[in-house]
Amino acid sequence: MANFPFQRLQADLASLIAQTAPGQRLISEPELAKQLGVSRATLREAMRTFETQGIIRRRQGSGTYVVGKVPVIDAGLEVLESLDTMARRMNLSVTVGELHIEQVEADRETAQGLGVKENSRLTRVRRVMCADGRPVAYLVDTLPADLLKPEDLPAHFNGSVLDFMLGRGDPLTVSRAAISAANATAEVAKALEIQRDDVLLQFVSQLYAEDGRIVDYTVSYFIPGYFNFHVIRRIGKSLTG
Fold first, then answer.
1. Pair (42, 132) in one structural domain
2. What is the per-residue pLDDT across 149-163, written as a single tens digit (0 to 9) for each?
3. Relative to the CA of 55, which of 16, 214, 220, 235 has its CA 20 to 30 Å away?
4. Where in the sequence is the domain holding 47, given as residue range(s)?
5. In a domain, 235, yes or no
6. What whole-number distance in Å separates Cα of residue 122 and Cα of residue 109?
Protein backbone atom coordinates (compact mmCIF):
# COMPACT_ATOMS: atom_id res chain seq x y z
CA MET A 1 0.00 0.00 0.00
CA ALA A 2 3.02 2.26 0.34
CA ASN A 3 2.94 3.07 -3.39
CA PHE A 4 -0.78 3.78 -3.54
CA PRO A 5 -0.50 7.61 -3.36
CA PHE A 6 2.07 7.57 -6.17
CA GLN A 7 -0.11 5.27 -8.29
CA ARG A 8 -3.05 7.59 -7.70
CA LEU A 9 -0.89 10.54 -8.78
CA GLN A 10 -0.01 8.72 -12.00
CA ALA A 11 -3.68 7.93 -12.60
CA ASP A 12 -4.57 11.60 -12.11
CA LEU A 13 -1.80 12.60 -14.53
CA ALA A 14 -3.01 10.05 -17.09
CA SER A 15 -6.51 11.50 -16.88
CA LEU A 16 -5.22 15.05 -17.30
CA ILE A 17 -3.07 14.08 -20.29
CA ALA A 18 -5.97 12.23 -21.91
CA GLN A 19 -8.08 15.39 -21.69
CA THR A 20 -5.38 17.49 -23.39
CA ALA A 21 -5.21 17.58 -27.18
CA PRO A 22 -1.94 16.46 -28.87
CA GLY A 23 0.38 19.41 -29.35
CA GLN A 24 -1.11 21.36 -26.44
CA ARG A 25 0.92 22.38 -23.44
CA LEU A 26 0.09 21.27 -19.92
CA ILE A 27 -0.10 23.88 -17.17
CA SER A 28 3.23 24.80 -15.59
CA GLU A 29 4.89 22.41 -13.14
CA PRO A 30 4.36 24.66 -10.08
CA GLU A 31 0.65 25.03 -10.90
CA LEU A 32 0.26 21.33 -11.68
CA ALA A 33 2.05 20.26 -8.49
CA LYS A 34 -0.19 22.58 -6.46
CA GLN A 35 -3.32 21.30 -8.22
CA LEU A 36 -2.39 17.67 -7.51
CA GLY A 37 -1.16 18.34 -3.98
CA VAL A 38 2.41 17.06 -4.41
CA SER A 39 5.93 18.44 -4.50
CA ARG A 40 7.53 19.32 -7.85
CA ALA A 41 10.11 16.56 -7.29
CA THR A 42 7.36 13.96 -6.85
CA LEU A 43 5.50 15.32 -9.87
CA ARG A 44 8.60 15.08 -12.07
CA GLU A 45 9.18 11.49 -10.99
CA ALA A 46 5.59 10.57 -11.89
CA MET A 47 5.87 12.33 -15.26
CA ARG A 48 8.94 10.31 -16.26
CA THR A 49 6.73 7.26 -16.86
CA PHE A 50 4.76 9.15 -19.50
CA GLU A 51 7.92 10.62 -21.02
CA THR A 52 9.51 7.21 -21.51
CA GLN A 53 6.36 6.10 -23.33
CA GLY A 54 6.58 9.12 -25.63
CA ILE A 55 3.20 10.40 -24.41
CA ILE A 56 4.52 13.77 -23.25
CA ARG A 57 7.62 15.83 -24.04
CA ARG A 58 9.27 18.40 -21.80
CA ARG A 59 10.99 21.16 -23.73
CA GLN A 60 13.59 23.33 -22.08
CA GLY A 61 12.32 26.81 -21.41
CA SER A 62 8.93 26.06 -22.96
CA GLY A 63 7.00 23.53 -20.90
CA THR A 64 5.47 20.07 -21.13
CA TYR A 65 3.50 19.10 -24.23
CA VAL A 66 1.16 16.23 -24.97
CA VAL A 67 2.32 14.17 -27.93
CA GLY A 68 0.07 12.42 -30.40
CA LYS A 69 0.67 8.90 -31.60
CA VAL A 70 4.39 8.65 -32.30
CA PRO A 71 6.22 6.57 -34.90
CA VAL A 72 8.13 3.79 -33.17
CA ILE A 73 11.29 2.39 -34.72
CA ASP A 74 11.22 -1.35 -34.01
CA ALA A 75 14.49 -3.10 -34.74
CA GLY A 76 16.61 -6.06 -33.73
CA LEU A 77 20.18 -5.49 -32.64
CA GLU A 78 21.68 -8.63 -34.15
CA VAL A 79 22.75 -6.73 -37.29
CA LEU A 80 24.34 -3.28 -37.23
CA GLU A 81 22.24 -0.87 -39.27
CA SER A 82 21.97 2.90 -39.43
CA LEU A 83 18.94 4.63 -37.98
CA ASP A 84 18.10 5.82 -41.48
CA THR A 85 18.09 2.24 -42.79
CA MET A 86 15.85 1.03 -39.93
CA ALA A 87 13.36 3.83 -40.55
CA ARG A 88 13.35 3.37 -44.32
CA ARG A 89 12.53 -0.33 -43.92
CA MET A 90 9.50 0.67 -41.85
CA ASN A 91 8.46 3.46 -44.27
CA LEU A 92 9.12 6.09 -41.60
CA SER A 93 10.50 9.51 -42.42
CA VAL A 94 13.70 10.36 -40.55
CA THR A 95 15.52 13.63 -41.12
CA VAL A 96 18.78 15.17 -39.91
CA GLY A 97 18.93 18.32 -37.85
CA GLU A 98 21.67 20.23 -36.05
CA LEU A 99 24.46 18.63 -38.09
CA HIS A 100 27.98 19.58 -36.92
CA ILE A 101 31.15 18.22 -38.51
CA GLU A 102 34.44 19.29 -36.96
CA GLN A 103 38.03 18.31 -36.31
CA VAL A 104 38.96 17.79 -32.66
CA GLU A 105 41.79 16.43 -30.53
CA ALA A 106 41.26 13.17 -28.67
CA ASP A 107 40.52 13.54 -24.97
CA ARG A 108 41.18 10.64 -22.60
CA GLU A 109 37.77 8.97 -23.01
CA THR A 110 37.74 9.18 -26.81
CA ALA A 111 41.38 8.10 -27.05
CA GLN A 112 40.57 4.98 -25.06
CA GLY A 113 37.44 4.36 -27.11
CA LEU A 114 39.37 4.52 -30.39
CA GLY A 115 42.61 3.02 -29.15
CA VAL A 116 44.63 6.08 -30.14
CA LYS A 117 46.90 8.50 -28.29
CA GLU A 118 45.48 11.51 -26.51
CA ASN A 119 45.52 14.69 -28.61
CA SER A 120 45.36 12.68 -31.85
CA ARG A 121 43.52 14.44 -34.66
CA LEU A 122 39.97 13.21 -35.03
CA THR A 123 36.84 14.01 -37.02
CA ARG A 124 33.61 14.31 -35.06
CA VAL A 125 30.13 14.18 -36.55
CA ARG A 126 27.29 15.30 -34.27
CA ARG A 127 23.66 15.40 -35.34
CA VAL A 128 20.07 15.16 -34.18
CA MET A 129 17.78 12.66 -35.86
CA CYS A 130 14.12 13.65 -36.12
CA ALA A 131 11.05 11.46 -36.68
CA ASP A 132 7.79 13.11 -37.64
CA GLY A 133 9.53 16.45 -37.10
CA ARG A 134 10.44 15.66 -33.48
CA PRO A 135 14.01 15.15 -32.18
CA VAL A 136 14.29 11.51 -31.11
CA ALA A 137 18.02 10.70 -31.13
CA TYR A 138 21.36 12.46 -30.70
CA LEU A 139 24.31 10.72 -32.35
CA VAL A 140 28.03 11.46 -32.04
CA ASP A 141 30.55 9.60 -34.25
CA THR A 142 34.27 10.14 -33.76
CA LEU A 143 36.82 8.75 -36.22
CA PRO A 144 40.59 9.06 -36.78
CA ALA A 145 41.22 11.98 -39.13
CA ASP A 146 43.24 9.78 -41.48
CA LEU A 147 40.10 7.71 -42.11
CA LEU A 148 37.62 10.56 -42.45
CA LYS A 149 38.07 14.28 -42.98
CA PRO A 150 35.16 16.75 -42.89
CA GLU A 151 35.61 17.49 -46.58
CA ASP A 152 35.21 13.77 -47.40
CA LEU A 153 31.51 13.90 -46.58
CA PRO A 154 29.20 14.80 -49.49
CA ALA A 155 26.94 17.84 -49.58
CA HIS A 156 23.90 15.56 -49.43
CA PHE A 157 25.20 13.69 -46.36
CA ASN A 158 22.21 12.04 -44.64
CA GLY A 159 23.79 11.84 -41.20
CA SER A 160 24.79 8.17 -41.30
CA VAL A 161 28.54 7.68 -40.99
CA LEU A 162 28.03 3.91 -41.18
CA ASP A 163 26.17 4.12 -44.51
CA PHE A 164 28.84 6.48 -45.88
CA MET A 165 31.66 4.11 -44.93
CA LEU A 166 29.84 1.09 -46.35
CA GLY A 167 29.11 3.03 -49.53
CA ARG A 168 32.77 3.79 -50.16
CA GLY A 169 33.75 0.17 -49.52
CA ASP A 170 35.47 0.36 -46.12
CA PRO A 171 36.28 -3.19 -44.88
CA LEU A 172 34.09 -3.16 -41.77
CA THR A 173 33.52 -6.32 -39.74
CA VAL A 174 31.89 -6.08 -36.31
CA SER A 175 30.62 -3.56 -33.79
CA ARG A 176 30.72 -3.82 -30.01
CA ALA A 177 28.11 -1.82 -28.08
CA ALA A 178 27.50 -1.16 -24.41
CA ILE A 179 23.84 -0.31 -23.72
CA SER A 180 22.67 1.52 -20.62
CA ALA A 181 20.34 4.14 -19.24
CA ALA A 182 21.83 7.62 -18.94
CA ASN A 183 20.76 11.04 -17.74
CA ALA A 184 20.74 13.77 -20.35
CA THR A 185 23.59 16.26 -20.03
CA ALA A 186 22.97 19.93 -20.73
CA GLU A 187 24.31 19.52 -24.29
CA VAL A 188 22.17 16.47 -25.07
CA ALA A 189 19.07 17.92 -23.42
CA LYS A 190 19.34 21.08 -25.51
CA ALA A 191 19.77 19.08 -28.72
CA LEU A 192 16.77 16.86 -28.00
CA GLU A 193 14.60 19.64 -26.55
CA ILE A 194 14.15 17.82 -23.25
CA GLN A 195 15.03 18.53 -19.64
CA ARG A 196 18.50 18.02 -18.23
CA ASP A 197 18.81 14.68 -16.36
CA ASP A 198 15.88 13.12 -18.24
CA VAL A 199 16.53 9.40 -18.70
CA LEU A 200 17.69 8.28 -22.15
CA LEU A 201 18.81 5.03 -23.73
CA GLN A 202 22.56 5.24 -24.39
CA PHE A 203 24.64 3.17 -26.81
CA VAL A 204 28.44 3.43 -26.67
CA SER A 205 29.84 1.59 -29.69
CA GLN A 206 33.15 0.71 -31.30
CA LEU A 207 33.22 -0.22 -34.99
CA TYR A 208 36.05 -2.47 -36.16
CA ALA A 209 37.75 -2.96 -39.54
CA GLU A 210 39.10 -6.22 -40.91
CA ASP A 211 42.59 -5.51 -39.52
CA GLY A 212 41.19 -5.14 -35.99
CA ARG A 213 41.51 -1.36 -35.91
CA ILE A 214 38.73 0.63 -34.24
CA VAL A 215 37.53 2.99 -36.95
CA ASP A 216 34.55 4.66 -35.28
CA TYR A 217 33.70 5.43 -31.66
CA THR A 218 30.03 6.32 -31.33
CA VAL A 219 27.94 7.63 -28.45
CA SER A 220 24.21 7.64 -29.22
CA TYR A 221 21.25 8.79 -27.14
CA PHE A 222 17.68 7.68 -27.85
CA ILE A 223 14.47 8.99 -26.34
CA PRO A 224 12.55 6.00 -24.90
CA GLY A 225 9.08 5.58 -26.35
CA TYR A 226 10.26 6.21 -29.91
CA PHE A 227 12.37 3.05 -30.11
CA ASN A 228 11.75 -0.63 -29.49
CA PHE A 229 15.09 -2.41 -29.66
CA HIS A 230 15.18 -6.16 -29.15
CA VAL A 231 17.53 -9.14 -29.43
CA ILE A 232 16.65 -12.61 -30.69
CA ARG A 233 18.65 -15.24 -28.81
CA ARG A 234 19.02 -18.97 -29.23
CA ILE A 235 18.56 -21.28 -26.26
CA GLY A 236 21.87 -22.38 -24.79
CA LYS A 237 22.65 -25.96 -23.92
CA SER A 238 22.12 -27.01 -20.33
CA LEU A 239 25.21 -28.08 -18.41
CA THR A 240 23.25 -31.06 -17.14
CA GLY A 241 21.65 -31.92 -20.50
1. no
2. 999 999 888 889 999
3. 220
4. 4-66
5. no
6. 13
